[in-house]
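Chapter summary example: a protein plus protoporphyrin IX containing FE.
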Amino acid sequence: MPGFAALPTPVLTSAGVAYVHYLSFMLCFGALVLERRLIRPNPSKQDATLMVITDVIYGLAALALLGSGILRVLHFGQGSAFYTENPLFWWKVGLYLSVGALSLYPTITYILWAIPLRKGEAPQVSEGLAKRLSWILNIELAGFAAIPLLATLMARGVGLPGGAG
Ligand code: HEM
């Protein structure tokens, strides 16, 4: 096995992009778990502020996840055709986009919380809204848990017209 210093730059870049992909996935998942844990009717100012900050981290990590994923397709993976010809890849992208679309509702809700929070007040959150947000977060977590399964199958060529590679 070559020493760390002997590794060619493209290998390190590729490893770095893969690392960003995994790290941003973990950040997204962790942020969703924390939001799920904190959501309740009429949260305290501290909890509401923490949820707003967590959602910003979630949004940035989701962008990093998308960016690193696109880089892996285009430059650091097994060739773009290996992915684009596989329906499992499109299921993965579709699931990511669906989770992203679903997260618009909580995100817009938290943006509205910024108005009372800036006045030093806690946001008013009804029982119904808290329940709705909990369910959305549950579905997002299930989606995020399913995507790596599609990823590992896709990475091994399962779903390609010629069968698993
Ligand atoms: C549209 C967004 C995404 C794109 C374009 C994308 C693309 C990719 C690519 C090209 C690979 C490399 C596969 C290989 O080694 O041949 C990969 C691997 C992986 N991706 Fe993504 N990805 C995206 C989103 C996600 C999300 C949201 C997650 C997690 C929730 C995720 C989890 C993984 C995992 C775990 C692997 C490693 C698979 C393995 O090597 O076994 N990806 N992704």
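Key point: The chain is about 75% helix and 0% strand.
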